[in-house]
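Hi all, long-time lurker, first post. I run a small reading group and we've been trying to get comfortable going from sequence to structure in the token notation. Rather than ask abstract questions, I figured I'd post a concrete chain and ask someone more experienced to write out its structure so we can walk through it together at our next meeting. Sequence below, copied exactly:
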Amino acid sequence: MQKLIGLVRRCVEDYRMIKSGDRIGVGVSGGKDSLALLVFLAELKKYFPAPFYLEAITIDMGLGMDFSGIQKLCQELDVPFTLVKTEIAPIIFDHRKEKNPCSMCAKMRRGALNQTLLDRGLNKLALGHHYDDAVETFLMSLLFEGRISCFQPVTDLDRTGIIQIRPMLYIHEKTVDSFAARKNLPVLENRCPVDKTTKRTEIKNLIYDLSATYPDLKERIFGAMQRFPLPEWEPKGRYKRPKDQE
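-- Answer (accepted) --
Happy to help. Here is the structure in token form:
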């Protein structure tokens, strides 16, 4: 736990993600990544030099999922929990019958999250993107869009005034998987009809295959993103490449 909290804190400090008095909402979908982030930030909050408020926000997509496990975890962590019910899934899959639903789903889900943050008086949204997500997004932009691009560690949403932060960028996916299993986090099964059939899954499989020949592929791509750097990817504080994780 302390090693992972150290990686989260290093990322937060490198990109100056948290300031004193911040009111942070964690977008908790029920997946392992967002649950791990919630646990990490709840622990970091205990001793981080800049005091901040933390709240878990879950958007119910209308897929019939049970979020009682997340509510129980929040009670154990002493973190307020807000559940927002929506009809996003029925609108996309039943009414509109979207053939490529991911983009619209992401926009509607993010819109619901942002509005909830504004309603709750929160100024920052913490998202559970990790090291592998960043590498995959970079390659997706390059191969499918012909752009050198990726999401930013810190994103200022001008229209809403909300700032998105991604404190887990120094933690590998396999490390998150292992942590979630050891801590028996209440991970929910993804009921999305297109789960594991997306372009991201294709890229994940491609990276897996290439890594057999080039074991340090992900590390080289991630390092290049910071050294190039992509917009807002150059660390503002100290930076030390994450050590091998288990």
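A couple of things your group might point at:
The CA atoms of residues 64 and 191 lie 9 Å apart.
The domain at 2-227 is CATH 3.40.50.620 (Rossmann fold).
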